[in-house]
Specification:
The chain is mainly beta. It is 9% helix and 38% strand. Strands 2, 3, 4, 5, 7, 10, 14, 17, 19, 20 and 22 form an 11-stranded antiparallel β-sheet that branches. Strands 1, 15, 16, 18, 21 and 23 form a 6-stranded antiparallel β-sheet that branches. A 4-stranded antiparallel β-sheet has the order 6-11-8-9, with no helix packed on it.
Length: 432
């Protein structure tokens, strides 16, 4: 989000490389928008997204309006940052989704991600930390799926207190280990999980106690019967509904998926939905921080794509949880190209093309301590304040990682950490 240009200066950006995710400031559009319009990817999505797709008039109207927007935040592209709840909150490891639970790699105690057969694991040393959110306090069961290496026992601490021991059996291979945790240890809101093991053994140069495939957080006791884990590797895929294939977030019923985002001015939620067979219902809500949930849309899901463009203007400027919940007799519901979109802005051209660019990087500085971002800040930075008055200030941006090295590498290369691969303490950018 750009603040209005102040003065007649050409486009200049202050880049502040901050030491934790969520408060870094970056230049350019969101990494998944590519400057394109929402009509290229949201709702109907690319070819086949004209009025002939979908079966109802509301879908056709949504697609026409969508052509006049651009993607602010592609939710499907950030599926690895979503909370997925299917009978319980599912924490997937060994995939990009595990960064969401461990807040990156920085001193988390988790090691490399490895694949063995059709399973993905994250290696765990003798001390590892993760975090997860629950709406309500109460007793929970943690189901650890993994395979022991140096130790069969995991000492579990929740919110700083001992919660018991999860133990794998003496057999080899992938196993489940359940641990019931009493209500007094569980918080409504963020919960801090610590895993400790007494023994580790060297595996390919790493000291490994356990390899974790997933941690499933059940409210109370786990449900009876066979359960199908909502694995990240199966979360986004192409689904054919009514003869039309679309790349989609695929949810097993009953499920909900949640993203957190700051809602922009003029923001709307674009999505399509359908089922290959059977019937289901969908409910879309947005909950501002500290507020009550607001229903954006609810209704039946059928075997034809339905496209919707949902107004979020009442939440502009607020951080909100965007949640899509599905249930019904259908095994799966496909959510095609969910995205937060905004109107295509009128853009003024610069008076002249810049020949050079100077990038000033300031490490571990909170944006809200600068008056350019927070006029009430007591910190005095008159030179930066004056510079900001003659510049374009980028008010809404996000770090690609939660520590310095990969974030700076991304600023300097315009590449994601998984592309430039500068993610470890010893890493350096390759010459290429």
């Amino acid at each position: 989000m750009l603040a209005p240009m102040r003065g007649k200066a050409a486009l200049v950006a202050i880049l502040l490389c901050l030491g934790f995710a969520g408060l870094a400031v970056a230049c350019g559009d969101d990494d998944d928008s590519s400057g394109g319009t929402a009509g290229e990817g949201a709702g109907g999505g690319g070819e086949g997204s004209g009025d002939e797709g979908g079966g109802d008039s509301e879908s056709a109207a949504a697609r026409r309006e969508l052509a006049r927007t651009r993607i602010h935040l592609g939710l499907m592209a950030t599926a690895h940052l979503a909370d997925v709840d299917h009978h319980g909150l599912y924490m997937d490891f060994g995939t990009p989704a595990r960064m969401h639970w461990t807040m990156g790699r920085w001193h988390s105690g988790f090691g490399s991600d490895v694949t063995a057969g059709d399973r993905d694991f994250t290696r765990v040393g003798t001390d590892a930390r993760a975090w997860f959110h629950l709406d309500e306090a109460g007793p929970i069961t943690l189901r650890f799926r993994g395979r022991p290496q140096g130790s069969r026992n995991i000492n579990v601490f929740l919110n700083g207190q001992s919660a018991g021991v999860a133990s794998f059996s003496a057999g080899d291979g992938v196993q489940d280990a359940d641990l019931t945790i009493e209500a007094r240890l569980v918080h409504a809101g963020e919960n801090a999980l610590m895993l400790r093991s007494s023994d580790a053994r060297p595996v390919q140069g790493e000291d490994v106690a356990t390899e974790i495939d997933s941690i499933w957080v059940f409210r109370g006791a786990p449900p009876e019967g066979e359960l199908h884990p909502p694995r990240y590797t199966e979360l986004v895929r192409e689904v054919t509904v009514g003869g039309e294939g679309r790349e989609s977030v695929v949810l097993r019923t009953p499920s909900n998926i949640r993203w957190y985002a700051e809602i922009p001015e003029g923001g709307r939620l674009s999505l399509g939905y359908g089922v290959a067979s059977g019937a289901a219902t969908i409910r879309v809500t947005a909950t501002p921080e500290g507020g009550e949930a607001r229903v954006l849309h609810e209704g039946p899901v059928s075997t034809a794509w339905a496209d919707r463009l949902l107004d979020m203007s009442s939440l502009a400027g607020e951080v909100a949880r965007v949640e899509i919940a599905v249930e019904g007799e259908a095994d799966e519901v496909a959510i095609s190209a969910p995205a937060i979109v905004v109107p295509i802005p009128e853009q003024a051209l610069a008076d002249a093309t810049a020949r050079s660019a100077i990038v000033l990087l300031i490490d571990t500085l909170r944006a809200d301590k600068l008056r350019a971002y927070n006029p009430d800040s007591r910190v005095q930075t008159p030179t930066l304040d004056a510079f900001a008055e003659q510049a374009a200030v980028f008010e809404n941006a996000q770090a690609p990682e939660n520590w310095t090295k990969p974030s700076v590498a991304s600023v300097l290369t315009s590449l994601t950490p998984t592309t430039h691969n500068t993610k470890e303490q010893s890493s350096s950018l390759p010459a290429s």
